[in-house]
Amino acid sequence: METKKGAIYARVSTDKQEYTRQLEELKEYANRNNISIEYIFEETESGLNSERPEYNKLINLTKEDIDIVLIWELSRLSRKSIEIQTDIRNFKNKGINVFIYDRGISIFDSNGEENSFINMLIGMLSAVAEEEIKTMKKRVVATKRHNVFMKGYSYTSHPPFGYTRVEKKMVISEPEAKIVKEIFDLSINGSSQYSIAVKLNADGVPTTSTKNALWSASTVSKMLQNTAYYGKAKYLDTFIDCPAIISKETFDLSQIKRKQRLTRSATKVGNTFLLRNLIKCKHCGTYFTNAKDKIHHQYKCTRLMNRTFQESKCTSPAVNFHNMNYLIWDIVSRYFREVYVDDRKRNNEANLLEAIEDKNRIKQSIDNEIKKENKKVGIIYSGLQELKIEFPDLIDLQEREKKKLSNIQSNIKRLNSEKEMLDNEIASLKSRMKDLSDVENMDLTTLDYNTKYDFLHRFIDYIYITKNVPDKSKLYYGESDKRYKVEIFLKSGNKVECKYHPQKKEYTINGVVNDMSEVPDGATAYQVTDKTILIEQTIKFPSVVPKIEPETEKAG
Q: Which CATH architecture has domain 4-115?
């Protein structure tokens, strides 16, 4: 008997389980059937995870590597029905046999012929394997619900600030509870979320998150809205009892005061300004605000606006409101696509194309399977007609053939459903690619105020504006250098930097290109290496700087 090359794949879900039984019995089977084990793949991973290292090594093997794969049971390959069937189909297309030990079946028989019942059986077994994991998840959720509602266990493994876990139950942490009470008292007495965070950081109050992490306004906001603090924690679709740190009256009063502050803030700000909460003071960390009087309309550090903070001696400059709106929008509209969208588009397109190719491969595999099944239907149907003519009395045999035909037709129907699902997924991916193309071709100059506002706040993290420190030895008598350095930090991690000259109404920006043909008109180029060219470009403001402000209704 010819020796066959084989591979064993053994998977367990947790390190408490062992491979021993799987491996020993599969090796024994291999010895009895003249199979030389060339590869053994073992791993402790969930079958729901498709990115298993050893599993990926297995499915990448070819017919030159092995003749047969030995697995303990079908669910060892995966816990996903579609993935199991795809893997079996791919092995079959490669001519690699798969032996499922607990069922004692292979996709090819001893003569190398395909097992006629294998597709139906694998479809059924893989569906059962997937249903088992769903049932297991339901049991886990049901057990957790029982433990929370009946035994009083904590509804979360990470209790909110002010609590800790003792013997699986949520209990109050007294040192943290004092801080929780202080936060609610400060809120009731008029302190904003930002002010509370500043005070906690100034007092050196530690958080329970990452080491050296600071308090933020968003953290304080979440705490002020967490109902667990008055003894009613939100869990799933209901509220459950938990230890209370504050009273319900204190919580409600804090909510009222908080809403009043938000209302006053909205009334004071009115229709928000373009760079609100984007320009950050490099000196003190607060945001610039919209400062307007009869003569000047500027962006200023909030602390410069408040006499209480005059002793801080904040050195941040005040800049012209309309000029800065124009400059930031002009830079973003000129360079956004270059520094952000193009890179993101290329990466996303590559991922989307790869996903489309993968789904097309699966679809082609399904098409091949459907062709084979249809061929079987034709053969069985022809045989059935001959059987009715030649042996009309063999009713049982006719019924068996009809049942076989019905099973194959059911399998074809299932395969067509999978194919239709893949077509929908491919169409969705192609639609996403079109959306990316639309982003690339978007005309940023025609956007209205609200769209520009959303656009900037979606992609800009923060902006620093600092005074330029001039070399006085190079200035002529009567001249002054009032250039500012503007740094725009994008949420992508990139940074755009320019020098802004308010008196000359211009800004200079630097960049990098790979070819002289890419140098913009009017830009100065500096060759650094064979493949790197630095450019410096000065852009003039228009004679009348357009105002980027919310549109107001005109009186009729």
A: 3-Layer(aba) Sandwich (3.40)
